Amino acid sequence: MNIGTAAKRSGVTAKMIRHYESLELINPRRLSNGYRDYDESDVARLRFIRHARALAFPLEDVRKLLALWADRNRASADVRSIALAHVEALEAKAEAMQAMARSLRHLAAHCGGDERPECPILDELEKTV
Q1: Residues sharing a CB contact under 8 Å with residue 9, sequence separation 6 or more, in sequence order
Q2: What are the b/e assignments for 72-110, b being 16+ CB within 10 Å?
Q3: In terms of Cα–Cα distance, which of 75, 22, 25 is closest to 45?
Q4: What DSSP letter does each residue of 68-125 carry, written as one string?
Q5: If DSSP codes are grouped into helix, strand and coil, which group holds residue 27?
Q6: DSSP state at residue 2
Q7: What is the pLDDT at residue 115?
Q8: What is the DSSP letter of 32?
Q9: Is the pLDDT of residue 128 over 70?
């Protein structure tokens, strides 16, 4: 099937399919005219990638998960380890974002929001870190 059909069937845009191919996450067959020819296994890999990316797995983890998915002799502990490490990273990001939200909420509470030019939000942004 062509890239347009593979895109429709997998839910991944043609542009992203080309990107994933450049990263060697998929490797479709090439026809004699140079066109890519996708089969059902390529569509399945693309769906897998789409689902993993929807869960915000980094591409390197997607690569590892694809390898484990293809390996019928895999240990589920390896998959679980990758997933739990990702959970920890997500939780750390969520905590950092909550801290940013608290900081901005505090600054906004101390901003007069009136016609005066003084603004603690801009004052804070002006500071060098």
Answers
A1: 1, 43
A2: eeeeeeeeeebeeebeeeeeeeeeeeeeeeeeeeebeee
A3: 25
A4: HHH-TT--HHHHHHHHHHHHHHHHHHHHHHHHHHHHHHHHHHT---SSSS--HHHHHH
A5: coil
A6: -
A7: 84
A8: T
A9: no
Measured in residues, the chain has a length of 129
Q: What is the mean predicted confidence (pLDDT) over 76-99? A: 98
- CA–CA gap between residue 62 and residue 16 (Å, rounded): 14
Per-residue 3-state assignment (H helix, E strand, C coil) for 39-62:
CHHHHHHHHHHHHHHHCCCCHHHH
Q: Which residue has the tokens 């004052």?
A: 123
| Closest-CA residue to 20 (of 1, 71, 43) | 43
**What value does the mean pLDDT take over residues 81-103?**
97
User: Do 6 and 17 form a contact (C-beta atoms < 8 A)?
Assistant: yes
**Cβ contact 1:38 at 8 Å:** yes
Mean per-residue pLDDT, 106-111: 90
**pTM for this model (two decimals):** 0.82
In the numeric block, the tokens 């992203």 are attached to 16
